[in-house]
Design brief:
This protein has 202 residues and is an alpha/beta fold. It has a single domain, classed as Restriction Endonuclease, CATH 3.40.91.20. The chain contains eight helices and ten strands. The protein has a six-stranded mixed sheet with strand order 1-9-8-7-6-3, with helices on both faces. Strands 2-10 form a two-stranded parallel sheet. β4 (88-91) and β5 form a beta hairpin. α2 crosses α3 (37-49). It is globular, with a radius of gyration of 17 Å. It starts with 13 loop residues before the first helix and ends with a strand. It holds the Pfam family Endonuc-BglII. This is Restriction endonuclease BglII. Keywords: Endonuclease, Hydrolase, Nuclease. GO terms for molecular function: DNA binding; magnesium ion binding; type II site-specific deoxyribonuclease activity.
């Protein structure tokens, strides 16, 4: 049983592996591809259609930004939607609200977050949310699409390096949290956007 983060490459198409770093926790890929083949196909379709350009990087944006919004919109077209779960804990017949954070993209028990350039504590929020929702049997697997640390070279060359600093969301900040068990028992799949997704347009 693979509880670590190295993926079972038999489930990952070669063209996806060429453009994304793929990691998993608690057999997330096997669960996603076997139990949720439609959602797995959606994710692969969005990833195959995604690229980011020089102008995307150069355009100022908030925490969400143009690139994250571009990915979110592709999922929306495929029937994924933002979802907030109403959760509560009952102790001796007394109900207590146990709110969770909303999920950016959700479809039939699969939760997906896009973290392009947020502050890295957002990973803690995402993984804790996945853990809680999995423990409450609300989701079967969580997915995070983020950027690989290697993209910093591109940002530096474009003079945008300070906007994508070390304390923002990139793979080197996520994997230690994943390996440290921040997602609890929830199966998790991570796709890191590599430099092969970059297209110069200036």
């Amino acid at each position: 049983m693979n509880n670590g983060h190295m993926p079972n490459h038999s489930f990952v198409p070669d063209d996806i592996a060429a453009r994304y770093e793929v990691f998993e926790w608690r057999n997330g890929i096997a669960i996603l591809s076997a139990a949720h083949p439609e959602k797995w196909a959606d994710i692969l379709a969005v990833l195959r259609g995604f690229s980011f350009s020089t102008s995307d990087v150069m355009k100022p944006g908030g925490a969400k930004g143009l690139i994250a919004s571009k990915l979110d919109s592709h999922f929306t077209k495929l029937g994924w939607a933002e979802k907030k779960f109403e959760t509560k804990i009952v102790v001796d017949e007394a109900e207590h609200a146990a709110p969770t954070h909303k999920v950016d993209c959700y479809k039939d028990r699969v939760a997906l977050e896009v973290e392009w350039n947020n502050k890295d504590p957002f990973y803690d929020r995402d993984l804790n949310n996945f853990r809680l929702l999995f423990d409450l049997r609300a989701i079967d697997v969580g997915v995070i699409i983020t950027r690989c640390s290697e993209l910093q070279t591109i940002f530096n060359e474009l003079g945008r390096g300070p906007s994508f600093g070390n304390s923002t969301t990139h793979m080197a900040k996520l994997l230690p949290r994943l390996e440290g068990g921040s997602g609890g028992g929830c199966p998790v799949v991570v796709f890191g956007i590599r430099a092969t997704c970059y297209v110069k347009d200036q």
